[in-house]
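hi! just following up on the protien thing from before. the input was this:
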Amino acid sequence: MPSLPSSKATFYQYTLLQKITYNRQLLRLYITLACLFLIGETLLWGPLGLLYGIISFFFIIWIHFVIIRSVLLIAREPIRKKWRFRIILPWIGFLPEQYISYRILTKVHRHLTWLGFCIIAILYPWSPISFVISAVLWHLWFIFPRLFSFFRFRKQHQNGIVKLTQTEMLYYKQ
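and the predicted 3d structure came back as:
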């Protein structure tokens, strides 16, 4: 296949508006908080509390995946090449791999926050209290850094794009 002439090539120019760098000390505090959750549950409910804490960790990851994927399908956003499971502290879970619209990202996480709490509330009558408390704590543990990032970007244009890297979150204007 012949290459495109340079006159027909597309160049995207983005202007960096704001950058959030993940501080190592805050990341250590973030991990320590998770360990304290598990230790606290073990002290309150014994080994069964620890088991429920671990189960609820994976349950919340799965719930987040289902909610994010559902919101993206309903919004008719491409999922296959743009989203995948990633572990970038403090972001863990089903995350964008490429540039993504800030508006879509906040929409997804707004739904993720409230639907996550609703699902936990629905399970409350049939689940042990230690599982429900663990699920709420893990949900907050996953959501808080994301909402904090959105809070930091609140003064920027709403039509920007976001890129997640291993060490920072970048906000660009198109």
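The first helix runs from residue 24 to 45.
The helical segments are 24-45, 47-74, 102-123, 129-152.
cheers
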